[in-house]
Design goal:
Helix content: under 10%
CATH architecture of the largest domain: Sandwich
Distance between the termini: 128 Å
Structural class: mainly beta
Number of domains: 4
Oligomer: single chain
Radius of gyration: 46 Å
CATH superfamily of the largest domain: Immunoglobulins
Number of helices: 1
Length: 408
């Protein structure tokens, strides 16, 4: 064991006393190498090879750095010489963005060579990015829409001049227009003016190298200046089981274009000069229809139509008479039941089942709604209805109101 330790110690001592062979330093100048590209112009998505050769004798192989500089990015690649030769490969994924690329060869941080190449947009399989707006115009000559086309390759690189973009369109399948626009500042555009007639443009955009999805431009009716409403059916009694039917005329703009389907019309009802309700309907073929339930009480309605909050139609006045000729009231003291009926209609008939009856307690703030069955109603009162004075009930049916005093 001692012999083994002695041998190891001797080897270590010898190694420490030995001189380490140093690599003699040397310098390279720009004229000491040749550096060139395989191709100075490539398509997007292709790799690039750059080769070089050292023209002087060197004591050993060396390492070079290659700085790749694009307007939007930069990268550094490294390689070692082999018998004085070296080569860089810039991979395809680094060459997707079109534009000029500068190369700088560095040796120990010093620039000793440079070159550059240009990445062209990829030809074939191109697309056109479209910006279109507004997509709906009013039918008047002052309105216009612009469609902007940006042709680009699959990597998003815009195509370069002198490429052109072709715009084709038809209006309602008849009017055909065609024009070409040269790509300037990476875009091409077309302005489409409105027509006096409503309809739809179908627009196709393409070039010799790219295509785009079909575009649409709608020419809608301009804002109408007026419209009218008319009464189609009316039951002039305060019977909530009945409806009135009102419709507009065909609503058009000043050029005769019918407003678009789905245009909302407000039907505004006033009762005794106060707002009673607002009902909405939507146009189909330029006409809006609405059915409104009759009121429960005898009253007068004033009805107008409204469009865009500033276009008001003519006014229709409707008079609703009471629907009930008479009814009887009887208080059953023993059973605490209020007997209502029989309820006789305006024609001397029993009022149909389901007619609404409102029963309220005077000054007590109590109210209930019940419905006729076989022309009568038997209403059992709760204690709270008769706990306070005055013990009076009010009954309202079809606009006819009666009162009755009750006793406990």
């Amino acid at each position: 064991m001692k012999v083994l330790y002695y041998i190891l110690f001797s080897i270590l001592l010898f190694s420490c006393n030995s001189k380490i062979e140093e690599v003699p330093p040397f310098k390279l100048q720009s004229n000491d190498i040749i550096f060139q590209l395989e191709n100075n112009e490539i398509n997007a998505g292709e790799e690039v090879k750059a080769s070089g050769k050292i023209l002087i004798d060197i004591p050993h192989e060396v390492k070079f750095d290659l700085l790749v500089s694009h307007a939007l990015y930069s990268e550094v690649f490294t390689c070692k010489t082999n018998n004085g030769l070296f080569q860089f490969v810039i991979p395809a994924y680094s060459n997707k963005i079109a534009g000029e690329v500068n190369l700088y060869v560095l040796f120990e941080g010093k620039l000793i060579g440079k070159d550059k190449y240009f990445i062209k947009p990829l030809e074939g399989l191109n697309k056109i990015q479209i910006f279109n707006g507004p997509k709906e115009l009013f039918a008047e000559d002052e309105d216009a829409s612009m469609i902007v086309a940006i042709p680009h390759d699959p990597f998003g690189n815009p195509l370069l001049p002198p490429s052109t973009v072709n715009f084709r369109s038809n209006f309602e399948g008849k009017l055909k227009e065609e024009s070409n626009a040269e790509i300037k500042h990476l875009t091409a555009y077309k302005i489409t003016k409105s027509k006096s007639k409503q309809g739809k443009y179908i627009i196709g955009v393409n070039s010799s190298e790219a295509n785009a999805q079909e575009q649409e431009l709608i020419i809608g009716a301009n804002m109408p200046s007026s419209f009218t409403i008319e009464l189609l059916s009316f039951y002039p009694f305060a019977d909530s089981r009945q409806n009135i039917h009102i419709k507009t005329d065909v609503i058009k703009d000043n050029l005769g274009n019918i407003v678009a389907d789905g245009t909302m019309i407000n039907f505004i009802i006033k009762q005794n000069e106060e707002l009673y309700g607002v009902y909405q309907s939507y146009t189909i073929g330029g006409i809006a229809n609405i059915y409104i339930q009759n009121p429960n009480n005898a009253t007068v309605w004033q009805i107008t139509g409204g469009l865009y909050d500033n276009i008001i139609s003519n006014e229709i006045t409707l008079n609703f008479s009471k629907n009930i000729n008479d009814f009887k009231l009887h208080w059953n003291h023993d059973k605490k039941i209020l007997n209502v009926g029989p309820v006789i209609g305006d024609l001397g008939q029993f009022v149909p089942d389901g007619s609404e009856v409102r029963i309220s307690s005077i000054n007590h703030g109590l109210e209930d709604f019940v419905y006729l069955e076989n022309g009568i109603i038997n209403y059992k009162l709760n204690f709270e209805w008769i706990a306070k004075d005055p013990k009076q009930l009010e009954v309202l049916i079809g606009g006819l109101q009666k009162m009755i005093s009750i006793e406990e």
